[in-house]
Hints:
By secondary structure, the chain is mainly alpha-helical.
Amino acid sequence: MARCLLEGRPLADAITKTPHEGLDLAPAGERMAVVDLHLASALGREHVLARALQAPAIADYDLVLLDTAPYLGLLTLNAIVAATHLLVPVSCEYLPMLGLKLLRDTLASVQQQIGVDVEVLGYVLTMVDRRERITDEVEAMLRKTFGSQVFEHGIRVNTHHKASPSHHQTIYDYESRGGRGREDFEHLCDEVENRLGIRRGRSKSERASSPSASA
Length: 215
């Protein structure tokens, strides 16, 4: 993906098939670390990623998920401009709650100054540990502030989430059926689909007749 942004390579060159039917990846690549520096001097720097995602190759997908780093640099700004919806993970800690104000201010500024139409799909609690009081406190604050925008299910603390990448496996491959990591992400997928009004396994003609969604 870095080569698409740095060199203008076709998006199709970055897309990689996976063993999982219906799931493809466009890996960032090591050079993604310097993309922010490149974007600083680029013409129309906020729209570089959006232009890359206008490629014909994108039409085959129900959903394109842009996974960004947890900071508001130019690359993250590009993702906001390119997206139709934002899915905001919130760790069950105090400081991430403070970061939400910065995100909301940035989103309002982007909508006003750049004129993009992006909305928050929802907030997802992560690192959920019901043994810790801070988890309940953060959830209560989120639900009081954002109401139904907070997803019903969160992602619980799970050592398998940390271990699976080192084995080059998804949580579905690494964890046995019925594991809570699989269960949490299955609930998350269901909620995302319901909120976006999409369903898995649609035909190509059905995809073509409905609006695309990025998160």
